[in-house]
Design goal:
TIM Barrel; 13 helices
Length: 295
C-alpha cells in the first residue's frame, strides 16, 4: 500500500457558521481556496477543530460531499472517523462512501478510558475494517487516556495500513521514542502547532495545524524550511508565532482561530454550544496581532 500522503502542512479545517448558526458554505469555499493557494499540503476535515460533535449526520454528509467536490483532488483529504464505540466506528468504515477521501484520522476512544490492550484492540479492529489508510490520533488532554509509545509502535508494526500518528500528548520523549523505533512506512505528525518545529527536528514529517487556518502561507514556510533542515530560518518563524500559539488556545479551540479568521474578514465569529467565542480581552490581543501581520 502506498504509505502516508499526509506530510507537510495539514489544516485542521474549521466549520464556518453563518450568524443564524447554519453552515456557511460560501465562507468554507473561501477558506479552502485560500489554504490551497497559500501552500497547504493536505486538509483534515471533520476533526476536533471542525466542531464535529455539534454537527448532525446530515450536516456531516453535506460537508464531506461539498469538500470532496470543492477540493477536487488538488490536495489529499484526511477525514475524522473515530469514537469510543468500536463497533460503531467499524460499521461507519464498512458502510460509508469514501470516494474522494484519502485517509481517516481516528481519535483514541474518549471518556471510557480503555487500557493499552483495549486501545490496541480498538485500532486493530479499525485497521481490519478500513478501506483507507489510517492515521492514529493521540490527544490525552481531550480523551482522558494516553496511548503509550509501546502501543503505538505495536500497531505501526502489526498493520501496514496504519500509516501515521497525529501526536498531541505534549510528551516530547514519548514522541521521540516513536520516531526512533517506528517502522520505515510509519510517520509521526505533530498535533500541536507550538511544538511542530522541535518535533520536525526530531524526525516528524509535518503538522495538522489549527493556526494554518488563518496563516497557511507563513506556517507552511516554517514547516517546509524545517523539513529541508534549514532550521535557523524556520526557528525565526516559529518564534514569531509564540505569543499567537498561546492566544489561540487560551479560550479553547477553535474559539481563538475563529476569532482570528473573523478579524481577517474570512468567516463570522460563530461557534456552536457548548463552545462560545473567545473573551473580549483575548479578542483585542488577537486583533492587534492581525494588524501587525498586515491583514
Amino acid at each position: 500500500m502506498a504509505n502516508n500522503k499526509f506530510r507537510g502542512l495539514g489544516i485542521a479545517l474549521v466549520t464556518p457558521f453563518a450568524k443564524d448558526g447554519s453552515i456557511d458554505l460560501a465562507a468554507l469555499d473561501r477558506l479552502v481556496e485560500y489554504q490551497i493557494k497559500s501552500g497547504a499540503d493536505f486538509l483534515c476535515i471533520m476533526g476536533t477543530t471542525a466542531e464535529t460533535p455539534t454537527l448532525s449526520a446530515d450536516e456531516k454528509a453535506l460537508l464531506k460531499q461539498h469538500l470532496v467536490e470543492r477540493v477536487a483532488g488538488r490536495v489529499p483529504l484526511l477525514m475524522g472517523c473515530g469514537g469510543n464505540n468500536t463497533s460503531a466506528v467499524v460499521h461507519d468504515l464498512e458502510t460509508s462512501d469514501w470516494k474522494g477521501i484519502d485517509g481517516i484520522l481516528s481519535v483514541c476512544p474518549y471518556y471510557n478510558k480503555p487500557s493499552q490492550e483495549g486501545l490496541y484492540q480498538h485500532y486493530a479492529a479499525i485497521a481490519k475494517a478500513s478501506p483507507l489508510p489510517v492515521v492514529l490520533y493521540n490527544v490525552p488532554g481531550r480523551t482522558g487516556v494516553n496511548m503509550t509509545a509501546e502501543t503505538t509502535l505495536r500497531l505501526a508494526h502489526d498493520f501496514e495500513n496504519i500509516v501515521a500518528i497525529k501526536e498531541a500528548s505534549g510528551n516530547i520523549s514519548q514522541m521521540d521514542d516513536i520516531i526512533k523505533n517506528k517502522p520505515a512506512n510509519f510517520d509521526v505528525i505533530s498535533g500541536d502547532d507550538g511544538i511542530t518545529f522541535p518535533l520536525i527536528t526530531l524526525g516528524a514529517v509535518g503538522v495538522i495545524s489549527v493556526i494554518g487556518n488563518a496563516l497557511p502561507s507563513e506556517f507552511s514556510r516554517m514547516v517546509r524550511l524545517a523539513l529541508k533542515g534549514e532550521y535557523n530560518t524556520s526557528l525565526t518563524i516559529h518564534h514569531k508565532f509564540t505569543e499567537l500559539f498561546k492566544l489561540l488556545f487560551v479560550d479553547g479551540n477553535p474559539a481563538g482561530v475563529k476569532a482570528m479568521l473573523s478579524e481577517m474578514g474570512m468567516i463570522e465569529n460563530v461557534l456552536r454550544l457548548p463552545l462560545v467565542p473567545t473573551r473580549l480581552t483575548t479578542m483585542e490581543k488577537i486583533s492587534s496581532i492581525v494588524r501587525e501581520l498586515g491583514y
